[in-house]
Design a protein that fits this description.
It is a single chain. By secondary structure, this protein is mostly helical. It has 2 domains: 9-55, no CATH class; 67-201, A middle domain of Talin 1, CATH 1.20.1420. It has 12 helices and no strands. The radius of gyration is 20 Å and the shape is globular.
């Protein structure tokens, strides 16, 4: 691959499929080739954004769950750190739900609400049911209730009932529209939950 090579859609698909097999040097060459295929102004914007990202300190991680570690994080850092911590422990499990329920309840509540929020804010409630995340459906409403998102829990159960009866039911869109503003409140609810239920993370 040459940085000035023009890429077709088939080229991009092939690059994506093989990227995980490439060395860091090969991945850098792929990045340069992709950037070179962008219009000059867009390429410059990407390079500026990449430089800004590289200059930021690394995002905080949780290597253990302890009161000081939880208190040291807030906002998006806390959400992402908990998600990453849980994902590292459950993503390779044969039974995702079972693996998740073996973790402290606080981690479950935060992880489940974060996964749902990301899906909803990215593509609506229907996206959650279309993606592998649907495997977590039975765990969502109880977690939302513990989080304090009672109306969101009720609407999720309504959506789950709709999808169970007829995945193509247009009623899901109506429920989904009502769910979005509730999902936007999840980050502040999680922050409050962590402060008030620290013990739920440490058992």
């Amino acid at each position: 691959m040459h940085p000035n090579q023009k890429l077709s859609l088939d080229d991009l698909k092939a690059i994506n499929e093989g990227l995980h097999l490439q060395s860091p040097a090969e991945q850098r060459l792929v990045l340069e080739t992709l950037l070179a295929n962008l219009p000059p102004q867009v390429e410059e914007l990407f390079r500026q954004n990449m430089a800004a990202a590289a200059s930021r300190p690394p995002r905080p991680r949780l290597t253990e769950i302890s009161a000081p570690a939880l208190r040291a994080l807030n906002g998006e850092d806390l959400d992402l750190a908990i998600h990453e911590y849980v994902a590292e422990r459950v993503d390779s499990a044969d039974d995702l739900c079972k693996a998740l329920t073996l973790l402290p309840r606080g981690l479950q509540v935060c992880y489940l609400s974060f996964v749902l929020e990301v899906e909803v804010m990215n593509g609506g409630l229907g996206q959650f049911f279309d993606n592998p995340s649907v495997e977590l459906s039975a765990l969502i409403a109880p977690a939302l209730r513990e989080l304090g998102a009672l109306e969101a829990a009720r609407l999720f159960e309504q959506a789950l009932s709709i999808v169970s009866d007829d995945p193509a039911n247009p009623g899901l869109d109506e429920v989904g529209h009502a769910f979005v503003p509730l999902a936007e409140q999840f980050p502040s609810l999680r922050a409050d939950y962590v402060r008030k239920h620290e013990d739920q993370f440490l058992v």
